[in-house]
Amino acid sequence: MSRPPRGTLTRVPPSNPGNQPPKTPLDADHAWRATAGRAADTVLFFDFDGTLAPVDDDPTAVRPAPNVLAAIEALAPLVRRIAIVSARPVEFLREHFGGLDGVDLYGLYGLEHSHSGGETVTEPAALPWVPTMRELADLAHAELPDGALVEYKRLAVALHWRTAPRLGPEVQEWGRRQADRLGLRVQAGRMVLELKPPVDRDKGMVIGEVVRDAGGAWYFGDDVSDIKAFSALRARAAADPAFLGVCVAVANPETGHEVAEAADLTIDSPAALGDFLTAAVPRLR
Predict the structure, then answer these.
(1) Which one of 74, 134, 211, 239 has the minimum C-beta count within 10 Å?
(2) What does the pLDDT read at residue 21?
(3) Per-residue model confidence as pLDDT tens digits over 57-78
(4) pLDDT digit string, tens, across residues 142-151
(5) Per the domain annotation, does 86 fall within a domain?
(6) Checking DSSP bridges between strand 216-221 and strand 185-189, what pairing results, if any?
(7) Better pLDDT: 240 or 5
(8) What are the boundaries of the region Disordered (predicted)?
(9) Rounded to 10 degrees, what is the CA torsion of 42, 272, 98, 109?
């Protein structure tokens, strides 16, 4: 099967939780046309890693794809809000997006947030877990084999094996054992296992809260954790036929198929997404 041209979107069957009829137009052109009429009441949501930025062997070296920052800056005054919803801490996201007006940052799956450059607010129920996470990160450094990368995020610990794929089973088994021992929750991702506090916050909850009174929303994501965000948009559309929800998957060789099956539209890379958002700016003006 031939691939679509770089930077284009294609329609794929949505997972459609609850057997609700799809509300999304059949292609990106119609989706943007429908959005233009309600842009001031539309929220654009973006995952970071693998969506706005290509995945890198070193998580600290990840940077947004070309055109992304300029496109988001141009789109922000044209829509109701732009929100970055990520597994990264807010402070990491602030390095890239903190200077942009009209951009909200949700870190650690919603355990932290900062609105339009404001202070970082942490979910109170998660704060008692900070010492546990520090101890877990230290233990991971001591017990996991060379080649496994331990990323400490204050309220989460991510265990990566991208540079040593053979370690995947061992790292996952160790992480799940520690999660059971400490009463933590586990979030699987692209060659990473994340351990986080047992606090009820995830991307779907963040999106569901933000779009309660919005007229429309797009969500762009690449990983299995983004499927909850897709489901939140579908639930909102099921409750209000006037709401326009568009779920976009950014393709990748690891989780791309699963995410694409749950999305309305797919795009082939973070670089293509940067080009796509740049082209969308004049359409929403």
Answers:
(1) 239
(2) 38
(3) 888 889 999 999 999 999 999 9
(4) 999 999 999 9
(5) yes
(6) unpaired
(7) 240
(8) 1-28
(9) 70
Chain segment 245-285, per-residue pLDDT in tens:
999 999 998 887 889 999 999 999 999 999 999 999 999 98
Which range of residues forms the domain containing residue 92?
A: 20-123+201-284
Closest listed residue to residue 126, CA positions, set 175, 85, 89, 173 = 89
- Which is nearest to 136 in space by CA: 150, 146, 147? 150
| Residue 32 located in a structural domain | yes
Q: What is the pLDDT of residue 24?
A: 52
Separation of alpha carbons 101 and 115, rounded Å:
9
Q: What's the CATH number where 150 sits?
A: 3.30.70.1020
Neighbour count for residue 41 (Cβ, 10 Å): 16
Distance separating alpha carbons of residues 64 and 45, to the nearest angstrom: 15
Structural domain includes residue 10? no
Query: Token pair for residue 202?
Result: 């995830």
Higher pLDDT, 270 or 18: 270
CB 62 within 8 A of CB 54: yes
Please report the DSSP string for 162-198 in residue order: TT-GGGHHHHHHHHHHHHHHHT-EEEEETTEEEEE-S
| pTM tops 0.85 | yes
Domain end position, chosen among 174, 196, 218: 196
Contacts of 185 (CB under 8 A, 6+ apart): 179, 195, 196, 197, 198
